[in-house]
């Protein structure tokens, strides 16, 4: 079983989360947590066919979008996720005088992305990149980071 490396605890504390596992790529519902926030206003719930990050959390964060998951993450040491708690998909975390915007969506897989486990992956998986909601989240996040008004 695979275990998440614990090599950069300072970075994980700053980021606010530590990846532990993910279930097989499958559709899951993403819902707005803070629907009035500028970064997600008008983006309703949608289904993402993506890699769901299951994490442990460090400190406070402002969750903007989330999902729920209850089940297993085969192949990972942190296998069982039975509490059905909210899993942030998009969040803000204050750090010093700045702020971090973190989005867990956007995993893709191409033909050679699984080497050395397998020589060629049988199909291209575009995940959330197929969704207009994901493109809007990216657009707003880039504008937010560049301090460009909406």
Question: What does this 3D model show about the protein?
Answer:
It is a single chain. It is built from two helices and nine strands. The mean pLDDT is 93. By secondary structure, the protein is of the alpha+beta class. It is globular. A hairpin with a 2-residue loop joins strand 8 and strand 9 (98-103). The strands form three sheets. It has a five-stranded antiparallel β-sheet, with helices on one face.
SSE topology:
Layout: H1 9-15, E1 17-21, E2 26-32, E3 46-50, E4 54-57, E5 62-68, E6 71-72, E7 80-81, E8 86-95, E9 98-103, H2 132-145
Antiparallel strand pairs: 1-4, 2-3, 2-5, 5-8, 6-7, 8-9
Quick tags:
alpha+beta; 150 residues; globular; five-stranded antiparallel β-sheet; two-stranded antiparallel ribbon; 2 helices; 9 strands
